[in-house]
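TASK: fixed-backbone design
INPUT:
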């Protein structure tokens, strides 16, 4: 009986430690072309990374927000490049690019292109990622 109790307590300790060090997985949905809203998003991401540096973060840009990820447009390239170096994934929606007649070669190399933003957001949520709507 003591053998069982010792192992039970040991297993509880392992389970507790695993839950306390769980890695946060966050996917942000950004569809606004408003640079003030985008600046707020980068600030929020920096706040999360300051508090939980091991967090996995992806931001899906669709609608007019895709302009933020183009080589020749966008106001916050330095923030995007810095966050990319820190492991943040930036994704541009291919449907949004096509709908605006934007060639995918114009997307910065730090970004990935996903076929459909809604499917990307859905897949991540199905994998346990937390969904955050960026902007107003």
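OUTPUT:
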């Amino acid at each position: 009986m003591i053998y069982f109790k010792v192992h039970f307590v040991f297993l509880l300790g392992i389970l507790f430690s695993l839950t306390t060090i769980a890695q946060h997985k966050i996917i942000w949905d950004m569809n606004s072309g408003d640079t003030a809203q985008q600046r707020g998003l980068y600030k929020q991401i920096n706040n999360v990374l300051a508090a939980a540096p091991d967090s996995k973060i992806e931001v899906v840009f669709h609608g007019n927000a895709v302009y933020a990820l183009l080589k020749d447009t966008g106001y916050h390239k330095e923030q995007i490049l810095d966050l990319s170096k820190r492991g943040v994934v930036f994704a541009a929606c291919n449907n949004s690019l096509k709908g605006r007649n934007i060639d995918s070669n114009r997307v910065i190399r730090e970004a990935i292109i996903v076929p459909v933003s809604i499917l990307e957001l859905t897949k991540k949520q199905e994998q346990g990622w937390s969904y955050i709507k960026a902007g107003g």
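COMMENT: The CA atoms of residues 30 and 134 lie 5 Å apart.
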